[in-house]
Amino acid sequence: MWSYYAYAGVFLLLSIFVSNAIAWIKQFRQASRLQAKTIALSGRPAGASTIPVTILTGFLGAGKTTLLNSILSSPDHGYKIMILENEVGAVSIDHQLIDNIPRDGVVVMQNGCICCSASSRAKNDNELERILDHLLTVQADTLGFDYLIVETTGLADPGPIVQTFLELRASRFRLDGVVTLVDTPALLSTMHKDMPAEMMAQLMYADVVCLNKIDLVGSDMDLDQASAFVRALNPDARLLPTTKATLSVDNLLDIRTFDAARYAEQLAKVTATPGNGHTADVSTVLLTATTDLVLQPFGLWLNDVVAASSHENVFRIKGIVSIAGDNYKWILQGVLDTYTLAPSGLWADGEPRETQIVVIGKHLNRFELESSFLVLVGKDKSV
Length: 383
Ligand SMILES: Nc1nc2c(ncn2[C@@H]2O[C@H](COP(=O)(O)OP(=O)(O)OP(=O)(O)O)[C@@H](O)[C@H]2O)c(=O)[nH]1
Description:
By secondary structure, this protein is an alpha/beta fold. It has 2 domains: about 200 residues, Rossmann fold (3-Layer(aba) Sandwich), CATH 3.40.50; about 120 residues, Hypothetical Protein Yjia, Chain: A,domain 2. The chain is about 40% helix and about 20% strand. The radius of gyration is 28 Å and the shape is globular. The structure holds guanosine-5'-triphosphate.
């Protein structure tokens, strides 16, 4: 009898020991996993080596470059910012319009639309990913930048760009947020009809929507209508009304608003929105001249182009113009039927004085634009 109890006791002790041992092993494993995690995190502390990324988007002429200039001229933002620029068309004008930054702080992505490139992952042809790799391996160390702003074209769908950042493995980049610039008067005139699909996607993916050009908005009621429209598309975005994109950097950079789950929800909505994709029939005409232009006839030519734009649908004109007898570069900025031409910085010594004008629109009459420009610069052989 005694031996029966002894065996049962030993068995009980053994099973307590075994179950304790299993629990200890489990605890030990868990502890080492936790430790490994802690080591991995402390080996790469947030802030020191992760580079926050802001995607800056918005339709043609909404004010993206204006906002960039405002950020870069803000005295105490404290970041060394790298800018990745992408432009509609074969020529880059925007990077010449960005002030206050060393030239090697801007990378211009010219050979193709950033969002189309980013959506071509399956073809192993993601130009954006290649540039990001290059920035990290070559330029992060030599230039020491600690913030990246990706400025999309006005015709970009930001979705594939966001997706690229989400799918980067073991990257030092951290998507901070999507900031969308809005030309508020243009939004008011298109929101109930013909809103370009890209503008819609830019609003839907935004973490922050800057309702810009408030100086051109008629009344508070109009602003309320624009805000309500954006809210209906994107209830969680932060709305910031502004003029000339003069916003505090604290509202734009390192705001940690990007949320992958929310992005997935918005992606489903964008995909379900009819007409998703690039606005059809948008083209770009580049006009260049190496002879100086005479101010008055140039102004008359511009008036004609803008006057004809109602049926040709010119969205955007921008450029750098060399005016005869003047040492300043003249900057041409036109959005829909409003344009300005104003002197900016001086031409540098030895810099070729080349005029470059980009016209972006729907159903553009390329032949008429090019031939009237040739007449203006005195190159037309037929006159
Ligand atoms: N009246 C007014 N004009 C503005 C405002 N913000 C920007 N602009 C003007 O709008 C024009 C277009 O501004 P940009 O900053 O170049 O716009 P963008 O979004 O970079 O344009 P894209 O190069 O077409 O993508 C410029 O002439 C700006 O000076 C504003 O708040 N009010």
